[in-house]
Amino acid sequence: MLIVSIGGIEAARTFLGARVAEAGMAEKAEVVSLLLREFEEGDADWLWQVDATRRVRSVSPRFAFALGQDPEDVDGKPLIQLIAGPAWDSGHFHSSLHDLAERLKRRESFSNLLVRVSLHGGHRWWELSASPKFDENGTFVGFRGVGSDVTEQRESAEKIAYLARYDTLTGLPNRLMLTESLGAAMGYAEKWRTRCALMMIDLDRFKAINDTLGHLVGDQLLALVSERLKLIMREGEVCGRLGGDEFAIVIRDAADVERVTELAAGIISTLSQPYEIDHHMLYVGASVGSAIGPRDGSTVETLLRNADLALYRAKDEGGGRHCVYEPSLHAHAEERRKLEFSLRHALERNEFSLMYQPVVNATSEEVLSFEALIRWNSTEHGFVSPAKFIPLAEDTRLIVPIGEWVLRTACLEAMNWPEHVKIAVNVSGEQLLDPYFAETVVGALASTGLAPNRLEIEVTESIFVRDGTTAQMTLENLMGIGCGVALDDFGTGYSSLGYLRKMRFSTIKVDRSFVQGAAKDNPESLAIIRAVVAMADALEMSTTAEGVETEAELECIRRLGCKKIQGYYFGRPMNRTDALALFGQTRFRERAAG
Q1: Band of the pLDDT at 593, cuts 50, 70, 90?
Q2: Which of 110, 197, 212, 219 has the fewest Cβ atoms surrounding its Cβ within 10 A?
Q3: DSSP of 210-268
């Protein structure tokens, strides 16, 4: 029995030793496996382990390299101290370090835990995975796992996420983020039974700057606009860029409706101040349209559409103003859509015609010229006022082909008149910005045979504010071939003596509002007309008084010294036949092609 007992004890001891050795081998095999993994997977991963007191042990070379220290200097130090940086002394740890410390404290496994570490004055991002380890007695002995530096990947992911929601040019939220913000604002309004607001902003005259000075200047201008918008935002208001020169503002709580009105006025005033870019002094304005949720729309899409309709109304009314959404805007938008469709086909359907209003010598009352005025008799809409379709043509750039038709038709008709009688054609800013406009004029003169000195191009002051350099160059080219240039509606808008000094206009046209005022002895109107006449005489320019309708107005204008007169007193706009009749049809033949 004694021998059997001794044999059993020895057998048990041998078995236990074998098991312990086997466990030791397994642990060594796991360490070797991890080290091999660290070696095989390149620079990305490294082995790390801590003991039960969360101090670093068995420091692998790559882990030490990631810490930027030698292995012997790292061994035995608390892991959190090594990676916390200055936060270790202050106690203000990054949330990810708190998370790591809690996992270690609770002795639970974790995988792909993202931790921000502070090393050598900078921040890096590590991805850590580990499992708790226990000895043969079940005693906790620490953690062992792998880690990798994922700073570059995280920065790339953050950049992608940023680009997805922010505009790179201005740094403002983009359309996606604005839409999300609007959705959140509408949710807030519904929850708290309040209101939110969406404001859409469009820059006036931006396209002209972008087209003429280039996209680089245009981009700089947009960046400056965004900086100004940021300065007037309050808490709970998100300003972003929708694209191009369109911006938007989401107001989370618009219970105070006066804030929308106040902010719109501030936007228009702030953005209308001059901008200096590359030695250019630039002026743009702003138009604003707003919609209130949920009153004007219960969904994000509806509110966006209705704010856009309000913005279009603001632009349609001349810009530089704020319009609030009204249900009637839908009908207006539909009418405009149908009108635009018809306008696109008006030329091919021969729906346009020209009328001619005479301009006479103030003294002899002899006809000196005619102003060509376009009319549109639409198949679908009947007679459409020029005040309605010309702005639409300018917005859609249909004014360029329509303007070319007017120019050729007017020049052709002028060939039927006496050689001293000129034809005046109105030209919009969109036409002057067209790089081929001068060629179009030359082509019209060449094809009709009209002498250049019989053509007068009429422009308004607004084109010089919009883009004075390009307009001046184009007009100077036309004057160089002998065409005249008339400045229309002088004194009603952006009057500046600067461009009168730079350009030798053939004629300055005095607006009818001053003519009517002068006839009623209005001191301001009288002073303005006297000043214009004196200035024109000094600069060797002619003056035309527009809108003369009564004998009293005629006598007043003659006394003030205007050289030419245009208005209903001498003739309303007339068709080509009636215009030709003014000279006596026995002397002048109509051209069959007219």
Answers
A1: very low
A2: 219
A3: HHHH-HHHHHHHHHHHHHHHHHT--TTEEEEEEETTEEEEEES---SHHHHHHHHHHHH
The answer to whether residues 222 and 245 touch, using CB atoms and an 8 Å cutoff, is yes
- Percentage of residues in the chain with pLDDT exceeding 70? 88
| 509 close to 488: Cβ distance less than 8 angstroms | yes
- Cβ atoms of 474 and 437 within 8 Å: the answer is yes
Strand (E) or helix (H) holding 36: helix 2-40
- Can you name the residues that pair with 324 across neighbouring β-strands? 290
Whole-number Cα distances in Å, 255 to 89, 312, 346, 381, 394 = 47, 25, 47, 43, 38
485 closest CA partner among 469, 497, 467, 473: 473
The whole-angstrom separation of Cα 237 and Cα 542 is 54
The residue type of 176 is L
Nearest in space to 385 (alpha carbons), one of 408, 359, 355: 355
> In this predicted model, what pLDDT tens digit does every residue of 233-292 receive, in sequence order?
999 999 999 999 999 999 999 998 899 999 999 999 999 999 999 888 888 999 999 999
- Whether 486 shows a pLDDT value over 90: the answer reads yes
Q: What is the pLDDT of residue 432?
A: 87
Asked whether 508 and 486 are in contact (CB, 8 A), the reply is: yes
Burial 446-484 (b: 16+ CB within 10 A, else e): eebebebebbbbbbbbbbbbbbbebbbebbeebbeeebb
pLDDT at 63 over 50: yes
DSSP, residue by residue, 479-534: HHTT-EEEEEEETSS---HHHHHH---SEEEEPHHHHHHHHTT-HHHHHHHHHHHH
Q: What gap in Å lies between CA 52 and CA 91, rounded to an integer?
A: 22
Burial pattern 260-294, b for ≥16 Cβ within 10 A else e, equals beebbeebbeebeeebebeeeebebbbbbbbbbbe
Half-sphere exposure of 527 (CA within 13 A, CB side): 3
Segment 6-33, tens digit of pLDDT:
666 666 566 555 554 555 555 555 554 5
Q: Pick the closest to residue 358 from 207, 568, 555, 213 (CA basis).
A: 568
What single-letter amino acid sits at 253?
Answer: D
What is the rounded average pLDDT of the residues 451-472? 80
Strand boundaries in 278-366, DSSP class E: 280-282, 285-293, 322-324, 352-361
